[in-house]
């Protein structure tokens, strides 16, 4: 038995988990279905353990699994230092009820001791709308 197939081909499953790992590293918390979260937990724990070993070979191995420079950089610079004294259990899965459309069990998978500001990485900072509109509107020439 070993692992969950999640009704997907091997290539699709590999790509799915690679994308989920990158999102989890970037935002430090994601919402997904319970079986996917349970399957993802050992994968992220192994990657963080791999990142704690400061070695070029380990870094290349990490990049081959993630295919994202920013994720590898974050593991090496932030997460490895954050979890230096921890021997495992870098993530947790919390049950989050059921999805409304198909009643699938949902879960939140997050890194332990996560940074609350990591969720806002891609969100643009709010600027006063009136100030921004005044600066961006071109001045019309009158004849």
Any key phrases for this structure?
49% helix; three-stranded antiparallel sheet; alpha+beta; 50s Ribosomal Protein L17, Chain: A; 5 helices; 143 residues; globular
How are the SSEs ordered, and which strands pair?
Elements: H1 10-27, E1 29-33, H2 34-52, H3 56-66, H4 69-82, E2 91-98, E3 105-111, H5 129-136
Helix pairs in contact: 1-2, 2-4, 3-4
Could you explain how this protein is built, in words?
- With 143 residues, this protein is an alpha+beta fold.
- The chain has one domain (10-136): 50s Ribosomal Protein L17, Chain: A (Alpha-Beta Complex).
- It is built from five helices and three strands.
- It has a three-stranded antiparallel sheet with strand order 1-3-2.
- The longest helix has 19 residues, at 34-52.
- The radius of gyration is 20 Å and the shape is globular.
- The model has no long low-confidence stretch (mean pLDDT 88).
Structural class: alpha+beta
The CATH topology is given as 50s Ribosomal Protein L17, Chain: A
The CATH architecture comes to Alpha-Beta Complex
Cα distance spanning the termini: 79 Å
- What is the helix/strand order? HEHHHEEH
Q: What count of domains describes the coordinates?
A: 1
Estimate what percentage of residues fall within beta strands: 5-15%
Beta strand count:
3
Cα-atom radius of gyration: 20 Å
Which strand order spans the largest sheet, edge to edge or round the barrel?
1-3-2
